[in-house]
Amino acid sequence: MHHIYCPYCEEMREEEEYSYTGEAHIERPKDPASIADEAWGDYLFFRANPRGIHHEMWYHAAGCRRYFNATRDTHSYQIHETYKMGELPAVTAPTKAALVADKAKATPAKTKAKPKTKAKAKAKVTPEEQQGDAS
Length: 135
Ligand SMILES: [Zn+2]
Hints:
The structure is a single chain. By secondary structure, the protein is of the alpha+beta class. It has two domains: 3-84, 2-Layer Sandwich (Folate-binding fold), CATH 3.30.2270.10; 94-135. Helix content is 36%, strand content 24%. The two termini are 40 Å apart.
């Protein structure tokens, strides 16, 4: 049983009291009549489906009956935070640009890091060797 913190009730409550209502921070186009059909379709039907950090809207159906946002890891199901409507999340996923920059930084370091990987592999073997020696 998961427990979720409601930012309005200020309590941890059982997951059964809540309903997931979709992705958070979806902004309605200011003038729907002036945008292309494709953009309107994207707004209505297409949502992010990340593996990892995701901002979602939840409804406390069996409690205060208010909507709030949560930052949840879709891979581990861990909820990192919940926050009131209109507030911004403290936990955010790294942006694509940041990931690309990290990869670019990591590439030259990888050549230097190769001996470290071997050292780690040796460290992983060591406990197995110790178990082997003990038996
Ligand atoms: Zn509540």
